[in-house]
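User: For documentation purposes, I need each entry recorded in a consistent format: the amino acid sequence on its own, followed directly by the corresponding structure tokens. There are two entries in this batch. Please keep commentary to a minimum and don't merge the entries.

Assistant: Recorded as requested. Entry 1:
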Amino acid sequence: MRVQLSGIQVRRNGFNILRDLNLETRDNEYIVLLGNNGSGKTTTLRTIAGLQPMESGSILFNGVSVHRLPPRQRSILMVFQDDTLYPHLKIGKAIRNSQPTELSASEKADQLTEITTRLRINQLLDRYPDQLSGGEKRRTAIALAMAKSSALRLLDEPLSSLDARLRPFLLREIRHWHKTAGGTTIHVTHDSEEAMQVADRIAILSHGRIVQLASPTEIYQHPAHLDAALLVGNPMMNLIKDQEQQPDDASHRIELPAHLDEAIKSRQRNLDTPCMIGFRPQHLSVDRREPSQDKASRDALYLTATVDQIWNSGADFHATLIWKEEIVRLIIKPEETQQVAKLHQTQPGQLIALRVASKNVHLFDATSGERLNA
């Protein structure tokens, strides 16, 4: 199933919820819509399902227009964020009612056993929804959807109501469902780790439009928008605003790679708009070398900051640093023994010199959020 959204506009109470939203999936693809609260994720899903009227735009399934069809005629499955279970039906009966009529009695029995066993609700079939915990209700809602057949599955925050122990388990089962059933899955979440684990591609939503659609690796390594940089990665990317260096703040300096330094100065001359400089905590290294005085040959970002706190998380060594009024995070792997030693030679309150390779420095327009460097 290929889904194509073109120029989708949705307004609610006088506000633009979706603004010229465009999305095109591939056959059998797992797409995750990732964004902050209010970015338009659930509205996009409801628009695809036909539950949300739109002002303008088109929706195509396999090249055929469906935006005028009612929800029942779109042949989709949707798992809602709030579990929609039948209060008068026992769990087993509700799942059996969801199974395709063309299945034989033995096929239905086999499917019921497989789904409920995989989701660990096979002991709950004689219970009513009000006898289930939040996590059990969520798994039952997924089971109801799994029992049906469709080439397009829409999942709205499918891991809500689950504790941390169950989330990886259910995420694996949802991915297994996608692979075995075939077709396309569109999954909404605000959790970047969840998105990175299951998505073939992630669509980053910001203020009602998609600002990047790419693989998890591409978004992590090359975010096309400030919101993509902030949403993907844990901890989030360090971001500091480019500022003119003042004579009295030489202790907290920043020296940019030559090509970025020139790009910022050119932008300031022509547009007078601020830039945001980004780099991930894992890409910072402790470096006592002085940056090259020849700016044209400078091949890295150099930063001087004040150590605030150093700690061992068990898996990595972490530090929080202060650059002017900004907090900067640093993460070092234990096997990087020289880096660990350099870090522990400093104390809170002391200055520390840091370096980021040019390829790991990201530049964004602070107003539009758009990426500025290649």
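Entry 2:
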Amino acid sequence: MGEKPRLWHSFLIRSIMQKPLIVRTVYALAAFVLIVGILYFAKLLLMPLAIAGVLALVFMPVCDLLERKGINRVFASLICGLIFLLFMSGIIALLMWHVKNISGDLTAIGQNFSDMMGRLQEYLHQKLGLPSPRQQDLLMTPPTPGTNGLSKTVAVVMGGLVNVIITLILILVYTIMLLCQRHRFKEFCLQLAPVDTQSQTKMMLLRSVRVVQHYLYGLAVVIVCLWVMYSVGFAIVGIRNAVFFAILCGLLEIVPFVGNLTGSTLTSLMALSQGGGVSMVLGVLGTYALIQFIQFYLISPMVMRAQLNVNPLFTIFILIAGELIWGIPGMILAIPFLGIAKILFDNVKILQPLGYLIGREKGTPSRIPWLVRVKTWFYGGVV
């Protein structure tokens, strides 16, 4: 019974390879469109499951350790779920505490921002002849918010909050169930593979798991280091509630490229709204540039042990595609899934051209030579 899917798999591959190139191209495009369509229209169903799958890979070593200690697999999975719940609760509580502190300064921040916009409009009026703020105030009377509009806003906010809570509960439940059933899913993948590629399939699964785990573990260490450096740097510059913005900028690092721009923009705007002026904004940008330099050339090469070996062009492309399909969660999941896809492409003969296309050039250095010796201090000679 276990041979049928493997024979079907071999027959399907042979039948596709015997087709003309144009037919194979049409098949590939049709499969691509079908996959993208399923991901887009089944977003609410698949997105929590995908996030839970990544979390299950992260907690898999913890679950294995607890099972080796003699704890039942179900209880070990529940403990991992409890750890995730406590971690998320701590992050949310810390952010809410800082938001409460910032809310007390909202009146002053709003006044500073209004004064700044007024000075900007006056400058544009004097230099370019644009309408002055007083003329605009006379021409445009701001609408007064009514009770109906306020109730609609509250309903939208409460609806979004309920959706977030339901999604988090689904992710938690899926994570626990995937940890309980992880060996079953591994056996399922092995049964799909042909008999003569069993060892290769096992190695591919192991490499995929390790790449995702090392990438996420390294990213977590980088984020913690960024929290410390941003807190110190923003405090020196004079940003109020520096810890909050440090946590925010560190969490935005989960989304490459886009997170950096968003974090620096938000902090710069807050510096202006606090009345810091151009000097404080330059201090924020200088702090951001220095910390990004330290992260890129020192921290990341030391802690990101697993190289995804993916072309930067396709990294940006997959980030944009993830945002278009699944929004912000799609951008977060895009990089780990691209790393898994790279391993799959490299190990399946028919897909090896895709693996070459999205990979780095062989001559492209993925490490900085002088850091190899530094990394041996941390990993005991194993780099």
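Summary note for entry 2:
Confidence is low (pLDDT under 50) at residues 1-5, 137-146, 364-383.
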